Amino acid sequence: MFGDAKVSVYAVPQIFSLYKVDIAKLLDHVLSQEGELSFDHVLDMIFATKACKASIKAGEKLNYYQMEQLVRDGLTHINSMFVCQHGRPFFIQIDKKQIDGMMDR
Asked: Which domain range does residue 105 map to?
């Protein structure tokens, strides 16, 4: 370390070459953390961010096949986990009264 504002990086874990990671941003985040930070926690943050950025965003148009595939993938790959990494629900339950209200009935 070269003082408070500079860090010298001589090597990075090989996994960072497989998944493009902005090392400067990663170091900023790691250095700003209070307390102990494990490598597993850093990897979890990276994978969660990558998954979020690759996900379908609100308002994005999907065709019928894409919607069907999305639900199929969710049911196949999300075992008993009905929320995304940020805690947003994968499923919601609404009753007939709520549907009627949405249809101005």
From this structure: 57-105
Same domain, 40 and 61: no
Q: What is the pTM of this model?
A: 0.46
Closest CA to 94 of 86, 103, 83, 85: 103
Q: How many domains is the chain built from? A: 2
Residue 25: name the closest of 61, 49, 58, 52 by CA: 49
Residue/partner pairs of 35-42 with CB below 8 Å, 24 or more apart: 39/13
Q: Please indicate, yes or no, whether residues 6 and 30 belong to a single structural domain of this protein.
A: yes
In angstroms, how far is CA 99 from the centroid of its own chain? 30
Q: State pLDDT tens for residues 85-98.
A: 667 777 788 999 99
